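Suppose you are handed a protein chain with no further information: no name, no annotation, nothing but its sequence. What can you learn? This example shows the usual starting point.
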Amino acid sequence: MKLQVKDKNGSLLKEHLFDFAQLLEQAQSRSQDDPIKVAANLLCNNLDADGISIEPGEKLNLQKQLDRTALLEKESSILKVIGQKTNKGSGSSQLNASNIMEHSELFERVITYPNSTYKELYDSLVGLDSVKERLLKEVTFLTSPSALEDWSRDKHKGRVIAATKSLRHRSPLLIFAGDIGTGKTALAESIGNAISESKGKAVKLYRLSIMTRGGGIVGEMTKLITAAFKAAETEANSSTLPTILLLDEADALAQSREAIQMHHEDKAGVNALIQGIDRIRLYTKTMLVIFCTNRLNAIDPAIRRRAADIFEFERPNDEQRRQIFEMYTGDIGLTREQLAELVKLTGPSDKRSYGFTYSDLVNRAIPTAIFSCYPHNPLTFHALKETAQQVSPTAPFTER
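A reasonable first move is to predict its three-dimensional structure. Written in C-alpha cells, the prediction is:
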C-alpha cells in the first residue's frame, strides 16, 4: 500500500510504502486506543523520521482514508496527504545517516566479508551443519527475493507457484536463542563470510552496541536505536550489498513490554526496534537483522512474532563433542577408545545434568591442557583427560 505526500503546490515529497495488515497489527499491539488513530500516528512518525511532516488537519484526513480501507476490507492503491519538508532528515542532526556510521556508541564493531578469520570461525562450528544449511536458505530468500522465483520457474516448468507467496513478505529478522557458549553469537558473526562466498560479493555486518540504551535521558534510547537502524538501512540501500545488523544479548533492549517493572523509556526503545524491523521489511531487500539471546522468553512477543525463524542452540551432544575433539586433537594420535573417554568425561554425569558447551571445550578445556604441557612436554591424552576432570563446564543460564 502506498501513502503519497505532496506539498501545497502539488509537488511530490514522498511515497511511503507499507503493509496495511501489518500496520494495524502493530497499532493494536502498542495501544488500547483506536487502532486506526494509532496507525495514522505510526505513519506520521515514519514520515517525520524521513524529514517530512504532514499539514495540520491532514492526520484526520489520513485516519479517514485508513478507516475507509478497513471498512471496505480492501487496500486502496494510494492514500494522499499534504505535507512539508523539515530539517530532521538533513544537516548535523543525530539521525543523519552519513554521520551516524562513525558513532562508536551505536556500533561496537563493523566487519567486512570475505574475512579469513571469520571463515575459520565458521568452519570450526562443527555439529551445526543442519542449522548452517537452513540459515543460508533463509538468508538467500530474505536478501534475494528473486532467487525464490528463479527456483520456482526452474523446478515447476516456468511457473511461479502459489506457495512462494508465503515467503515473500516475511520480516528480515532471525533470532538465535540458547545457553551461553552454545555457538549462537559465533555463528551470527561468521555467517556473513558464508553469505559472501555463496554470493561472490562483499557483505558487511554492523554489531549494535548495548550503549544504545543511552544514559537514561528520556527519548535518548529511542533516538539511538532509530539512528542505528536508519544508518544500517541507508548503507544497505546505497551499496545494494547484503548487510547484517547484529544485536547480541538482545533481551537487554528487546525485553517484553509486559514486564511490570519495565520503565517507560525501555518500552519506547522496544517500540523503536519494532519500527526499525518493519521499515527494513518494507524498504530494504538486502538487509538481515539477527538477535542473539540467552533468554528467549524475555524477548517481547511482538518481536518474536515478527521473526522469520527462531534458531534454538543446544549444548553439543556426544557426536558433536567427538567431532570437536577430532578437529582439534585428531593429529596427536588419540585412539578411538581415548576419544570416547574424553566425550564421556565432558558430557552429563551423575554429579551434573549438563555437559560442556562449545566454548567450554574450545576456549577453556583444550587450551588448559596445552598450558599444562607447555613448554617441556607434548600434548597427550593424559593431559586432556586430567583437564576434562578438573575443568567445570559453564552452568546453564536459568530463566526466572
